[in-house]
Fold Transglutaminase-like domain-containing protein.
Amino acid sequence: MRHPYLPPPYPPRPERSAELRQRFAEEARSERPDLSALCLLIGAETDGSLDEAGIDAAQAELDRLAGELPYRPGGPDAWAEAVRGLLGDRYGFHGTPGDYQRLESSLLHEVLRRRRGLPILLSVVWLEVARRAGAPVYGVALPGHFVVGFGTAAERVLADPFDGGRVLTGPDADLLVVGATGAPLRPSMLQPAPPLEVVQRVLNNIRAWAAARPERSDVGLRAVELALLIPSHPARLRYERGQLLVQRGEFVAGAEELAAYADLIEVVDEPAAGKVRQEARIARAKLN
């Protein structure tokens, strides 16, 4: 469905969107959620031009890249260097500051095409390629910057896909965290990030992109609605959804969502619930 005044991406048709959301919900609730599948479903729900052939092609590209890695190159250092050599050096996957301003930097199929993206999406490429090749790899959600880790905690090697896969020393990781938070790196920050945490952060980035561009509230709303399909999602997402619906002129649906959120939080924060109910009343009044 095209909008005459907005640039692409355009959303998929309603029946396609419903199917994508059902698949996303089923995958998110599965015993072992598939990170690449979830990211590609996000891409298809955001960009209606990504069809089933495009999803299959993206998965095939991850398989192809994995097939170019050496067989069991050695320990964590050797794995980190092998993946950096392939993805960073040979194929040129990396990021730049300008990538933060582009929606496609958060869409896995576009990152595979452009070989550019945000730290977390480049890390998804690193994770999925290395995992397919048998590497002991996992995501590390440092505050403000996502990287990948190879090996156990005792022999952990960190790499920064945004910087072409540069292997990080201890001081490098400390500087990344201090630069983002002003506080030093803590060991708890180095724990492997589960797939659903990665997916939630991808959706957070899309929501942040859309929030800075009110004319693309359609993108923000779709990201919120996907995030609501993830088990144990933050309740405040319902408040955000209600606000976006009101912003888009869907006053009744927005007011209902705001009222439902007020019911959720009333037990723990009655004054806040009262304020949200007032927002719901104002939204309904806009119909008059």
Observations:
- The mean pLDDT is 93.
- The longest helix spans residues 195-211.
